[in-house]
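Quick start: load a record and inspect it. Here is YiaAB two helix domain-containing protein:
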Amino acid sequence: MSDTPVKQQSTAAFYGQAVASFAVAMTATAIGIYRLDANAWVRGFLAIAVLYLVTSAFTLAKVIRDRQEAGEIVSRVDQARMEELLTSHDPYRKTPDPRQQSR
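Running the structure step on this input writes:
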């Protein structure tokens, strides 16, 4: 019997909350940088730094997800091989006696 785990799907509410949270954070950061009492070069540097941080976070999340999915695939292949071995094994089958084969 196979006990393969069901892939968890996030709900629409969780997805919506994540998108809304990201939008609010980016908007608040953009407003904060825009209204900062500094010259344009400093605000531009901070804006580029925030964009770089966001793209790095997305890349890191993707790499972690890909590594986890690859581990799940290897685990499923190993589980399938083990199930195949267990189903093909017959505990009542006689094995040849190695002592008699050497004669």
